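Task: complex structure prediction.
Instruction: return structure tokens for all chains below.
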Amino acid sequence: MNRIEIKTTSRNQMVDITSKIAENIPGKFDGIVIVYVPHTTAAITINEGADPSVRIDMLYLLSKLAPQNDSYSHMEGNADAHIKAALIGNSVTIIVEKGNMIMGTWQKIFFCEFDGPRTRKILMELIAR
Amino acid sequence: MNRIEIKTTSRNQMVDITSKIAENIPGKFDGIVIVYVPHTTAAITINEGADPSVRIDMLYLLSKLAPQNDSYSHMEGNADAHIKAALIGNSVTIIVEKGNMIMGTWQKIFFCEFDGPRTRKILMELIAR
Amino acid sequence: MNRIEIKTTSRNQMVDITSKIAENIPGKFDGIVIVYVPHTTAAITINEGADPSVRIDMLYLLSKLAPQNDSYSHMEGNADAHIKAALIGNSVTIIVEKGNMIMGTWQKIFFCEFDGPRTRKILMELIAR
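Output:
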């Protein structure tokens, strides 16, 4: 298992971590890689990486669906972040062939920060075919 | 593969099943565990377990996003439950080292009931590294 | 790894691909199958297959949560499709025993098109227990 550390700089932010994952996969590995976020106010997703406006729209719409202020019970002011994390999910699984993640042309792996800025951890595990 | 049975007691409910999963993992196992819900009106997620208000907020907001009554076609009165299940997802994958699930400090595994009360099944499978 | 190709016929559509996945699983295989969508405006989910109205309701509600027209930055007119894809997720993992996917009675695997009609690819990988 590998642990990767990243620092986020905003309350809501999507950070492209594709190359950080790729560099921890051995050259001839065949199987799958699990990328797992051990936090409850952050998530991980795979989506379009070419146009940064897609990330802006995604964070905008998530904040519309789960506003920061609503009739929440949780008193820490980050109930919205927990809900966004549950909607997006805390892990992704990617197929690996000969050390390369088999992803679509436009796909990148994004760490989603919903209660930053913070220092965050990402776990990854390789399971051979 | 293991099958775990739980009984839910409300229409919408999040049940912490972390210890039920943990007790089915052999002591020295290294790899991943897949936790899978074979139902279409229930889901599984990993989120904060310490403060019960997070679960209250999550169920509250999901019911705002997918209200029980709307212009639905499905006539069984549980269209909202199917939609919530799709938004949250029906499986999670967790990394295991030496028999221990490697999760964040605040993370717990929750079975999400959206059309209870019912008796429900959860499947789990271990895949060695 | 297998690649499956499908053609969608509407902008928003859920296509049952369960049998296409099943026919690529060898008869005595034990482990898991990962079904992965390499697109950023499509997704994959497991939900009820018996009553087609569930799919209608799901697409209806997703379009309410992420309307096609909103204050989006992305100029290609499909920001909603990227967001729906992130909400539903781009892969599912299913347990396989003796060549059979262990799913619930009502569960089917659905490819979710959010920016069709298009020709789309689905990847699948088997990981033995």
